[in-house]
Amino acid sequence: MSEFQRFLAKRFAIAAVLTLVAVSVIFVVLRLLPGSPFEALITAGNLTEQQVNEIMAMYGLNQPLWQQYLTYLKNILTFQFGYSILQSEPVWQVIRPKLFNTLILLVPALVTTAVLSTLLGMFVGWNRGSTLEKFSIITTTYLRSTPVFITAIIFVIVFSYTLNVVPAFGMRDITAAPSGFTETYLSMDFLHHYILPFSVAVLYYSGDFLLLARNGVIEKKGSEFLKLHKAKGLTELEQLARAGRNSMLPVLTYFALRLGMIFQGLILLEVVFAWPGIGRALVMAIQQQDYPVVQAAVFIMALAVIIANLVADVLYAYFDPTVSTSGGGTA
């Protein structure tokens, strides 16, 4: 087995352990929450104690904790998420459209900001000390450090309530009843509701990519290979392109990490804009203590982050010869 294969095996083993820890934490935390999913229904008189006991037996919630854990572990690791307690539907049918709504919002936002912010970061890094560099760093750092719900609320106040140019909440008009992918996601009504949360997400992610690209170009600017290119008569733009290309690895690995984290959604962004995504659905499921929905949603989020970290590690080890795959730092 080669050194790189041993590195892969080690990283896959770590990912498997992290997955087991994540699903175990999900199980324990949910069981530590006060109350149960049925308290509100009992208080409202919708269910009797006997009916609750029957439902708990159906979901296995009356079994000993260790038995619940083993059943839960077997089901969650085989992607058998069961049925929502409160919606009486398969969990995957409940969270699938929510997950897609999150991806349709955040993946284009992440790709857009990764491309634009990286190009801007390369340019300001090459022109270090310029007014544009100072302005872009201050602006993007402020947007990244400000909680996303604050930026979202400011945008709602300015563009929805003051200027009245875009709707404040939702994914479509309240009276709309679209059918099919085209009417749902490619209509003018959807685009009208999409602009505001999309813009906030783009601005929120921009600072990280800009600083990574800027710092990478600054590191490469005085390198020997660029001096050689300059001696060959390459223009400033051609030198910048080569410096940018050679500093892309941190940007690519960060993009992989962020892509995994997208499955969490920007929970507060979705709550502010009432966007029907996975983050908002998770908040509501936690409030209602809908165990199967919470377990499935958090498991998908955790698994996506673990896989993204694994991909980032492998990308770095494969493309960067200075990174040691033996775990001993740089080669």
TrEMBL record:
Where's the ABC transmembrane type-1 domain?
Answer: 99-312
Highest taxon, organism lineage: Archaea
What is one Pfam family matched by this protein? BPD_transp_1_N
Spans traversing the lipid bilayer: 12-33, 103-126, 147-170, 190-213, 255-276, 296-319
Arranged from A to Z, the UniProt key words for this protein are: Cell membrane, Membrane, Transmembrane, Transmembrane helix, Transport
Q: Which PROSITE patterns does the entry link to?
A: ABC_TM1
Q: How does it sit in the membrane?
A: Multi-pass membrane protein
Q: Chief location of this protein? A: membrane
Q: Which cellular components does GO assign to this protein?
A: plasma membrane
CDD domains on file: TM_PBP2
InterPro entries named in the record: BPD_transp_1_N, MetI-like, MetI-like_sf
Localization recorded for this chain is: Cell membrane
Q: What family does the Swiss-Prot or TrEMBL record give for this protein?
A: Belongs to the binding-protein-dependent transport system permease family.
Please give the PANTHER family that the UniProt record associates with this protein: DIPEPTIDE TRANSPORT SYSTEM PERMEASE PROTEIN DPPB-RELATED (PTHR43163:SF6)
Instruction: State what protein this is by name.
Output: ABC transporter permease
